[in-house]
Amino acid sequence: MYTTIIILLILSTTTTAIATISSDITALKAIKSSINPATIPSYTCLHSWDFTSDPCSPPHVTHFLCGLSCSGKRVTQLTLDPAGYSGTLPPIISQLTQLITIDLSDNRFHGQIPNSLFSLPNLQTLILAGNSFSGVIPPAITNLRKIQTLDISHNALSGSLPKTLASLTELTRLDLSFNQVTGPIPVLPKNLIQVALKANSLSGDLQKQSFTESSQLEVIEVSQNSLTGTIPGWFFLTPSLQQINLSNNSFTRFQILKPVNSSLVAVNLGFNKLSGYLPATFSAYPMLASFTLSYNNLKGRIPWEYTKLPRLFLDGNLFIGLPPKDFFSRKTFIISGSLGDNCLKSCPAWSKLCFKSQKPCSVCQKAYRSGKLESKS
């Protein structure tokens, strides 16, 4: 019996000996104080932050039930529930120097992201998506030398991307979609695997130096911007690249080179201003399964080679002539997509590919400068 009591006393002493360092407690208090109390319901993580108890000392029965994790006496993870917390992020957050993860997504934080946040030496994951942070993207963001995941999408950030973004050599996932970011795409980090810059105001053309270092890049999502010029052939040959979305920009032409060990699976170039004729080369990409060119200004006949693609969207262009019969062969696999809203002849109504009707003949004649349409069809 005495042995049991001694063991319990030792365990009790060990438990109470764990005390969060004072600078971490001060920072946590400041974070809670910066949030409007009316937006902290009783069922939320922040409501359980009662500082009559030590944040890192277990067991967490009534206080600090969630929202943070510790290692010893230091806070290492700050992950708030998406409860609609409304407030600002205090600069004193930089005192949590052992933070590895910050996730404040899907709340109502506003104001500028404090520069001090980017001085955290061990931060690997920063997710501030789905808030109302504003102001320019601080150049100090490139001080996060250990950062691997950076997601600040769905905010109101403005200004251009830092030119020194490539210095984040550990970064593998970057998402700045749905902000108000301007300017060109800078040189991307070498270990980047996914980059999403959708729905901003990026401008300029695609520069080779922006992607040269990113040999592991698998996903590029830059749709709904203001990018212009020609989509160069080298872009589709970027090593490891699997998915490309450049839709809803202002590109006018694209070049296609012969694929070399390509891993491309899906390409979306829809809703641009692409003109010219559709090259058969694109169908030679061995892994390509989905190709979208909807609503551009492409002309000519559809090469039969495109009947090999499982998903093909060519609607809203100016393609002429008879569509390749293999699109509708009962012996081939079912192709999904659309050939509608073109200038095609005899697109069978029974096929889902032809659900959208073709353009009026007058529109097609005008596009081919009157009479030229007949000579090509």
What does this structure look like?
The protein is of the alpha/beta class. It has a single domain, classed as Alpha-Beta Horseshoe (Leucine-rich repeat, LRR (right-handed beta-alpha superhelix)), CATH 3.80.10.10. It contains 4 helices and 25 strands. The chain has helices spanning 2-17, 22-33, 361-367, 372-376, and strands at residues 68-71, 74-79, 86-87, 101-103, 108-112, 125-127, 132-136, 149-151, 156-160, 173-175, 180-183, 194-196, 201-204, 219-221, 226-231, 243-245, 250-254, 266-268, 275-277, 290-292, 297-300, 311-313, 318-321, 336-338, 343-344. The strands form 3 sheets. A 13-stranded mixed β-sheet has the order 1-2-4-6-8-10-12-14-16-18-20-22-24, with no helix packed on it. An 8-stranded parallel β-sheet has the order 3-5-7-9-11-13-15-17, with no helix packed on it. A hairpin with a 2-residue loop joins strand 1 (68-71) and strand 2. The protein is elongated and about 80 Å long. The relative contact order is 0.06.
What is the secondary structure topology, with strand pairs?
Layout: H1 2-17, H2 22-33, E1 68-71, E2 74-79, E3 86-87, E4 101-103, E5 108-112, E6 125-127, E7 132-136, E8 149-151, E9 156-160, E10 173-175, E11 180-183, E12 194-196, E13 201-204, E14 219-221, E15 226-231, E16 243-245, E17 250-254, E18 266-268, E19 275-277, E20 290-292, E21 297-300, E22 311-313, E23 318-321, E24 336-338, E25 343-344, H3 361-367, H4 372-376
Parallel strand pairs: 2-4, 3-5, 4-6, 5-7, 6-8, 7-9, 8-10, 9-11, 10-12, 11-13, 12-14, 13-15, 14-16, 15-17, 16-18, 18-20, 19-21, 20-22, 21-23, 22-24, 23-25
Antiparallel strand pairs: 1-2
